[in-house]
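Action item from last week, closing it out:
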Amino acid sequence: MTFRLHRGSCPLLVSMPHVGTDIPIELRADYQPRALGVEDTDWHLERLYDFLPALGASIMQPQLSRYVIDLNRPPDDAPMYPGASNTELCPTHFFTGDDLYLPGRAPEAGERTRRREAYWRPYHEALAAELQRIQAQHGYALLWDAHSIRSQIPWLFEGTLPALNLGTASGQSADPAIALALEQACQASPNVSHVFNGRFKGGYITRHYGQPQQRVHAVQLEMCQNLYMQECPPFAYDEPKALAIQPLLQALLQSALAACAALYEK
């Protein structure tokens, strides 16, 4: 099994598709040595979101690095953000734009297909099944796709990102009432900058599974890593910063859950 699934008791499923750090031994010789440090990981999110079990949330966490397979990209590898720099289903570049693989060692079509079937498909089959279970039990489901990223990555975007980047696929993946509740929660913490559907509107997971008409709502949060950790090696967790931002994270999730529940109590 290349992922962990914790089944909870409430209508919330939190997916953390980029927290994995493993690169299979048989693949490591193909990568640049630098890649084994997996610098573009969504570091420490499982620790930052350690309050999830108390909320009753279901949680999905892969073990493999995004350098092996990007679980938040579509199976056909179509670009998520046309016209911008994009990472691929089987990434070939660091976030700096440098080559991830040694010359001539990037995965060819057959290897990309193998990884998709061996690693990507099981994760998504389990994710879909858990959403179906939650919806069957509660009548609706809320999917929260949790991410983090360095605040400045020129290859991907200009300047500095807002601290919290919330995405609902430009309003397509979640009911407007949920976005409004999240906006209000953010406004209660004016010292933490935020934006909705900016550079990061939601990747494949948010766009594919967010189906409000089917009572499944999806939100992506891409948060800057300087909120809770060091953005450079050794990528250390910053406990005081993390403790300061955790109440807002919990408020966002609780606000979204409450708004979701209110939709179906009418």
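Closing note: The longest strand covers residues 141-149.
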